[in-house]
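Data availability (excerpt). The following record was deposited with the supplementary files.
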Amino acid sequence: MSLPANSRTQALQRRLVLVLGVIAALAAAAPSVEVRGNGVVIANNDTTPSLADHTDFGPAYVLGAAVTRTFSLFNTGTAPLTLTGPTPITFAGTHAADFRIGEAPAASVPAGGSTTFAVVFAPRAAGSRTATLNIASNDPGQNPYTFAIKGTATFTAEGELPVRGGLLLHLDAGELTGYDNGDPVPLWPDLSGLGHDGAPVGANGTPAYAANAI
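Predicted structure:
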């Protein structure tokens, strides 16, 4: 017994609607990046670093201990997220060299999953240091995912620079200093009269006077 032409047409139409629905659902499935710092969402293209979400790294000493912040990267989409390129997270901008990745994220994040990555701020000069962080991925609407970061770099004290072991201070001061060859020099006087004398730091940080050195 065969179905009337009408019924066959309706059945085919229902199947077609079902197939088209599946195709549409598959096409709509896509990953979506969301980054959080200190539990706070950092919007894509954010240009205002904040201490609250750790995009402002706060103070750090030039050539001193670096500051590290850990961020969480979520895939809030409905398809697997893949970070792309040999270096998915990069830095751009005036002081990009002051920032680096300390811990890389996972290369792939399932839908609804997350991973973490750490950024290190190690300033090379004093002042406000700014950059833009970029995350490359297969997110169709947010590639790259970017946000501004910053930190404030200072010396350990005004007029003071970190001194490493093995430094010799070469002076040609005749009898004015009162130093003999090899004597330690515990203070670097500021001859400008501003009082910004620099004291060496560290156990091996005291320079020595070298007489008649070239």
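Summary of structural features: Helices lie at 5-28.
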